[in-house]
């Protein structure tokens, strides 16, 4: 792990980050999108055969397959998934908002309504990155928002199957339809609709470069969530932090992916040293050692700072996806956090608690985008619509003013649409 | 204006829409973005010379220029702009939301904070499409959100100037910095920052195809609002509607742009006939006749329906930017509206009232995207950040469950970050 110090390194040196390589797959993805758009289901079967080497007999996952998935999961795990669901629902229900209205005595009514999206697509990656926890995190806020149709897509294994835990999580979360289709072709199906797969209003969920590129390309014809990059954590630790726990949390991040980034910012030289030792020790015992080690060596950083104010300044510059405050008085620092997807306060709040269980969403802005993006929430599954009503009396008071404004912009037709309503005494519709 | 009837046309025929032509300017835009990213200000001067044929002496609009702009506007217009500002502020203040927190007796605290974006860029197009009303609509929600730095960019005229009304609106709305730069180069400057122009967190505002393409390309490195397409209105009119007023409102939409779309959906054959006559008459007197006429002829539609239920079904399918309900009991229909940016209720609420003055935002989802997008609002200028705290007692109760969930996903490092905290009796940090 590279070690920096604000005494001896510039902020620029400290912040420098290897950007994740993005190969340009837009030509391939563009062809796939077009193919699905024009040929529908038949393109989906063909692409799944060509790309995933699977000959599907049906796109949709059957009720039997889902039931079989459910019953192959241990009761203990089902109970935990169920409890996680309850916690996630409880947290996200607090995000629900009401519309508003304002009225006045002149006969003026205006307001804003909040309406659920009609249909949402959830992409779930295949292989080892198929996480039932992500199914819960992506689906449950949509359920709370009142989305009527939630469609899940996920690539099949070479045997044409979907992991049991994914099916179980989908069933528990309340997914309405599941399809065995992945990659850019799945995004195309959700964006355009096919004979079998319904067109949706928004597509959420992480995926590989083909999925991300496809999402970016269909953005505007359909809404998308953020484009997820490699995951990251920044841990701020003071003298009282436990180096073993800090190391464990850094490794939990690093085991995701060689591109994942684990950063420690500490005021304590002792922590710098002891965390490095703990990392070496714990790495030995980690099943995903190879991945974690490469992530730590390539992207990991330990930054020694003068004080916690400096630590927070750095954290705000980096805008981490996850920010752990392993300090004596974590709540003292919360108000200083400007840019972070999710904040974990104190020694007993490891990120994993939030990844799986506590309630806040784990779909969070990565690669410094916490500067402007937010955790996935109920807000992502609703839209707003404003409304306006003026009585004749209310309109007559402002007609000239609005007409003047419109004329100043050279839009006489706009002005005329105001004044014409005051001209015609035979037509009194008040 | 083409006339359809649900008696004799299929929904598909009725809904068919000429999609707006999108020329592919991505290669040009890509080059411009790269140029500004690497060469900063000097690229901005060069590109403005090459593209806008203006040799600027400074990028930033001076205080003197802004004052001169203010004093060249009539007092009457200033008063109206000021009143519009008050109305817009009053409406948008109702969108402000608070964070939340939940606690429990085991020592568990979690919540969500709402934080303003630090810096926002507002693009204002040049030429005849430079609308002071849009400055108000794009800037004021950001002010309410608490954005500290609002930067406006707009292309200079060949004399190197910015329209007085734009400068006045910017001053009244509270823009912090104004720069004479337009096109893709302006978007690049806001996305990457230059020596003079600060990098922002989000770029809003309409623009031509170069601007829209640049926004799409920088999306992710910076947030953007929706990509605005041609404006549209859908008017639902029953027997009691005033054909002259309906025609005036259709023309107000049509005068924007030949690509603008004005649609009338009515239950009354009389309205169909009389609106057509009124359109012809009113077109004669319209200064922007040529534009409006082409828009009406190419994109305009009159659709005769059996009843209001059918009218609303069509409206929801079309998902208009503006929906006028020129019917006897407009509030009866409001709850049936699923997809519309902004709804104008009754005979005395022309769209122009909302475009300029009443309070709701006029930056609205176009081209059917009201299915999933919302009017610009205070929400667009804040981000959310969640936080989580568990006491030792609270953590100990769930450690095994969370570890089990993590292990089921093959993430032992995550599981270990939970269990390690229960292992070490010497380190009691509770």
The level of helicity of chain A is 40-55%
Low-confidence stretches of chain A: none
Q: Strand sequence of the main sheet of chain A, in spatial order?
A: 1-11-10-9-12-13
Secondary-structure content class of chain A = alpha/beta
**What is the CATH superfamily label of the largest domain in chain A?**
Nitrogenase molybdenum iron protein domain
Q: What fold name stands as the CATH topology of the largest domain in chain A?
A: Rossmann fold
How would you sum up the major sheet of chain A? 6 strands, parallel
What is the CATH C level class of the largest domain in chain A, in words? Answer: Alpha Beta
Please give the most extensive interface between any two protein chains, plus how many residues each contributes.
Answer: A-B, 125 and 125 residues
Quaternary structure: homodimer
Number of helices of chain A: 17
The second-level CATH architecture of the largest domain in chain A is: 3-Layer(aba) Sandwich
Beta strand count of chain A: 14
- Overall 3D geometry of chain A? globular
The first-to-last residue Cα distance of chain A is 75 Å
- Beta fraction of chain A: 15-25%
**Count of folded domains of chain A:** 3
Question: Mean of the pLDDT scores of chain A?
Answer: 94
Radius of gyration of chain A: 26 Å
Topology of helices and strands:
2 copies of one chain form a homodimer.
Chain A: E1 2-5, H1 11-15, H2 26-39, H3 41-52, H4 63-71, H5 75-93, E2 100-104, E3 108-116, E4 119-123, H6 132-145, E5 149-154, H7 164-173, E6 177-180, H8 183-192, E7 202-204, H9 209-218, E8 223-224, E9 232-237, H10 243-254, E10 261-266, H11 269-285, H12 289-299, E11 301-304, H13 308-318, E12 322-326, H14 330-334, E13 342-345, H15 351-356, E14 382-390, H16 392-408, H17 412-419
Parallel strand pairs in A: 1-11, 4-5, 4-7, 5-6, 7-8, 9-10, 9-12, 10-11, 12-13
Antiparallel strand pairs in A: 2-3, 3-14
